[in-house]
Amino acid sequence: MIRKALITAALLLVSYSAYIAFLAPASWAGSQHEWQDNLIKAENFIYSERDSFEHVILGSSLSCRLSMRDLPEMYNLSFAGHSVLDGIEVILRSGKKVRNVYIETNYPEKPEDAKFVQSLFSALYYPRKYLHALRDDKRPLSIIGTKLSKSLTSRVTDRIQLMTARSGDSDPKPMGFTRQLTDIRSQTYSQTPDDSLLAQSLRNLRERINLLEERGTKVVFFELPVNQRLIYLASPSLTRSRYLEWFPATRYRHIPLPDSLDYVTTDGIHMNREDASRYTKYFKEQVFGQPQR
C-alpha cells in the first residue's frame, strides 16, 4: 500500500514537473497570502539564472505596494512583515551581484528574521533550484485558489460598482475606518523612539551595507510617504535625522519625499493602488532622471 502510494506520488510529481517545464503558460503561478509572496520573491531571486541584477529594492510591506509594472528594470525584494536586513541577507547569501540597492527607511527598528533566511538556504530547499514544480508559486492549490479568488473578487467588484453607480455614490471608500487607523497610528508616531535601540538598528544596517559595498554595490535610500498627519511626528522625524547621521548625504544618496504629500493610504501607512502608482513614477524619475507620465 505504502509502495503504491509512493509510486503514485512520484509519477504525479514527474508529470507535473514536465507540465511546468514544457507546457504551462507564463501565467501559471499563484500566491494566497503575504508569507507565500515573500517566499516566491526570494525563490525567484535566489534561483534566477541571472548572476547579477542592476537594480534591487529592499523594504517592508510599504515597498511591496510599489507598481512594478512601472519599474520593469528593477527587482522588488521587499518582504511584508520583515526587515530590510532580511533582503540584504538574501542578496549576500545568494552570491548574486547587485549594482544598485534602494533601501526603504521607514522602519529601521524591525529586527531581522534569521529563521526566514535560513529556511531559504536549507538543504530541503535545494531541489527547488532545479524542479520548478516544487516552488511556492507553482503549487497547484495556490494557483487554483488564486484564479478562483480573482474571479470572485472581479464579480463582487463589478456588483459594487453597479450598485454605487445606481445610487450616485462613485467613491465608496471606507474613509471612516482609514481615519480611525490613522488616529491609532498617530499615537505611536507621536512617541519618541528609544534612541539607543534605533542606533543599534542602524548600526546593524551599516554593517550589512558595508558588506554590500565591498561587493561593489551602490546604496540609495528612500522614504515612502504615509498619511500627511504622520510624516513629521516625533518618531519618523527622529528616524529621518538619524539616518542622515549614520549615512550622510555626502556619501549616500537619499531620495527626498515628494513635494506634494497628499497621498491616500488604506490604513495610514500603506498607499492605495492609485497613489502607489503615482509614487512609483516619482521614484522612477528620481532614479533615472527622466520625467514619467
Briefly, what is this?
By secondary structure, this protein is an alpha/beta fold. It has eleven helices and five strands.
Which features characterize this protein?
globular; about 290 residues; about 50% helix; 11 helices; alpha/beta; five-stranded parallel sheet; Rossmann fold
How would you describe the overall organization of this protein?
This protein is α/β, with parallel strands linked by helices and 293 residues long. It has a single domain, classed as Rossmann fold, CATH 3.40.50.1110. 52% of the residues lie in helices and 9% in strands. It contains 11 helices and 5 strands. It has helices at residues 2-23, 34-46, 61-64, 84-94, 114-120, 140-167, 175-189, 195-214, 228-231, 234-246, 273-288; strands at 52-58, 74-76, 97-104, 218-222, 253-255. It has a 5-stranded parallel sheet, sandwiched between helices. Helix 4 packs parallel to helix 8 (195-214) and helix 8 runs parallel beside helix 10 (234-246). The radius of gyration is 22 Å and the shape is globular. The model is unreliable at 19-23 and 156-173 (pLDDT under 50).
